Every structure is written in structure tokens, then in C-alpha cells.
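Why do we bother with holo predictions? Because pocket geometry can differ from the apo form. Keep that in mind while you read this record for UFG.
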Amino acid sequence: MEVKKKILVTGGAGYIGSHAAVELLKAGYQPILIDDFSKSDSTLLLGVEKIVGEKLPFYKGDCAKREFLESVFQIEGLISGVIHFAAFKSVGESVQRPLIYYHNNISSLITLLDVMKDFQVKNLIFSSSCTVYGQPDQIPVKEDAPFKRAESPYGATKQMCERILEDSYSSYKVISLRYFNPIGAHPSGLIGELPLGVPNNLVPFITQTAVGKRDKLTVFGNDYNTPDGSCLRDYIHVVDLAQAHVKALEFLNQSKPANSFEAFNIGTGVGVSVLELIYTFEQITGVKLNYSIGPRRAGDVEKTYADATKANYQLKWKAGFSTSEALLHAWNWEKKLAGK
Ligand code: UFG
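The structure, written out:
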């Protein structure tokens, strides 16, 4: 029997980590999940188990804690690569509590790199974000666009982590995936986004309003320089995003340079406005959303979407799901959570 390559997935109980675990298993890898449950619980792990029909190795702990990480590497033996999802990701919270963002996001990466080196693990895929570009001068934005000053401490941590990875390239093979706006849920309806408390992001706010959990959605501004005045984003289905990680692992295994750092945009290449997204949601679900236009949200970028040509050609990856499918899957997941 062929031995499966072990891939350590930090933040494996989270939104993107759980979807990646499913895709890794489907592609023949053995995901080893770790999570400290600081922003999640076991709900998505149970969903993953239902989808794949087996229990996955899981370790509860904080990857900024060296002893914890070392123990996982020791127990698991040969690990062929790491996907590092574990990080705090709320823009608003990062403004309120910057130090915990700098501390958590940066020290977990440094600790992970240290331990990987000790155990001679080189392959790393890092969860980055289009937030590293700020408001780009040119859209669609390409990977070589300059980093503007980050709008939030969260964005600054992603820029700093990329810098750390670039500087450490001689010891590792790193791919940084710059996600645009992940939305949707697994088509099975068994895993999806599970925000703690009031959601910050648009799609969970839409689905929670539609299901009756929130009274009303506010559109943050309709006076931007865009066709309908609301902000433009590149919404990418979370399963497409998860599959990009599998492609990135294949790329790392095949690519020639022993040590390297490469960044890839992961998006659809299509800009969709907030109002268009709301309209599409109403069309495909038949649910009328209670929303109104409010003031702009501080720190919002007016418009950004990806030039994902580099990922299309080099990783041989392309987004497959439409925005409508992503919204429908998010809606199915929300209804399931609400027991409807
Ligand atoms: N929006 C609303 N009402 C809401 C929530 C959001 O109108 O209740 C709007 C925002 O103003 C923005 C769009 O919906 O125009 C998308 O907002 P999100 O909060 O869903 O996403 P962001 O683009 O602000 O941020 C996301 C991730 C970050 C990541 C960033 C990169 O949340 O982690 O993309 O640009 F860094």
C-alpha cells in the first residue's frame, strides 16, 4: 500500500483549514490537523469527518508554543509539508488589539519555521492575503505590485510574515498564497464559515440576515468610484481556494530550485460589487434581504481583484465555481446551522 505524504495543517479546525483538509485527503495526502480552538471549536472537524468518512489525526495546541509543535513533529515522524493557516484574521479586532495580532501571527510563524528547520521540513504554504497590496494602483492586481502601507495591524502582520519568509528563503521552499475574498461552503453543506459572534465579513452577514439571525445588513458606502458606488472585491469559493493549496503542494514537489519563495494571487479575476452580491443572493435564493446603505467603513479598499494568471499557468489552478454557486452553498450551510 502506498504511504500517504503527511501534511501538517495549522488552523485545521478553521474555515479554510477544514476545507483544505478535505481536498488534501481527496488528493491522496494525509492531513495532520492542529488548532488551539481560540477562534473555532470541533464543529468543522466533525463535518470534515462526515465528508471523508474517517477520523483525521488532530492535536489541540498553539503553534506559537515550541514544545507543542515539537511534540507533534516527533509523534508524526516524516512530515512532507506544512500549510500554515493558523492566524487571527479580523481587520477590526486587529485595530482594537494590535499587540495580540502581532504577537500571535508573527510568533507562530517564527516558531513554526524554527521547528520545521529542526525537523528538516522544507515545504511550506503560507496563508497570505490580498490585503498586502492595500489599494493597488492597477487592477487587476499582479503579484509584483508594490505593497502599500497596510490599512490595519492584521494586514501589517501578513506583510511582515511574507517578508520573514522571503528573507528565510535559503532554508525553505515557500509558497505564499494571497487569497482574495473567500466565501461559500462545502457543497455537501457539512462544513462552512462559522464566525464567532457578529460577523465582520459580508457573506456571513448576508446569510445570517437572510436566516433571521440579524435584523439588517448595512452596505458600507455607495459613493465609491465604482459602477454602482459600492466596493468591488474578488469573491473566491472556499473549495476552489482549498484546491489551490493542493496545486501549490504539487508545484513545490516538482519545482527545481531547492529553496525558494514564490507568491501567487488566488482569486477569480472578476470584480463583484457589494450591491451585485446582494442582488445575486436574492435572485438565487428567492429571499429578500433587509438592507440599507450606510456610511463607508474605515480602512476599506475601494476596489481590488486578482490577476491570477500566474496561478493559472504555474500552479495549473483556476477557480471553477461561480459566485452564484458560492452564495448558494453559503446559504445551504447557514440554513443547516439554523436547523432549517
Ligand atoms: N461589507 C458591507 N457590509 C457588511 C460587511 C462588509 O457592506 O456588513 C462590505 C465591505 O465594506 C467590503 C465588502 O463588503 O466592501 C467585503 O467586506 P469583507 O469584510 O467581507 O471583506 P474585506 O474585503 O474587507 O476583507 C477581507 C478579509 C480580510 C482580508 C481582506 C483582503 O476579511 O481578512 O479581505 O482585502 F484581509
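The mean pLDDT is 96.
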